Amino acid sequence: MADRILVPYDGSPPATDALEYAFENFPDAAVVALYVVEIPDSRWAQAIGPELQLSVNERAEEYASDILESATEIADERDRRLDTEIVTGEPDHRIVAQAEEQSADLIVIGSHGQANISRLLLGSVAEKVVRRSPVPVLVVR
Length: 141
Description:
Blueprint: E1 4-8, H1 13-25, E2 30-38, H2 41-44, H3 58-77, E3 82-89, H4 91-101, E4 106-110, H5 124-132, E5 137-140
Parallel strand pairs: 1-2, 1-4, 2-3, 4-5
């Protein structure tokens, strides 16, 4: 049984499904919703790594806070406590790094269908997290 669950959350229907799944199936677990402010590819030439913490402009911070507020509302509807985190970087790297830093037992992530045939069943971020994560990953479709 998972005691601490990390749910990458961007406000999309698959992310909402993942959050709801975590609440419904792990009633005693501490749940953390993580929003990753993605850094544009052009900035990655300057510095790469899961520890990267570039400053986030105020608009991106407000947007992330609004998205996580919707996650908090979902938690409140289910009478659950939810911790939230905002980080910057490459989403798959930051998700895995946060799971390690927070000693998560499980990552519950939503799958995103893509037009590309190879990404039809599993979104590229979810796929990379599954490949890189040192903890189990549950993909919600």
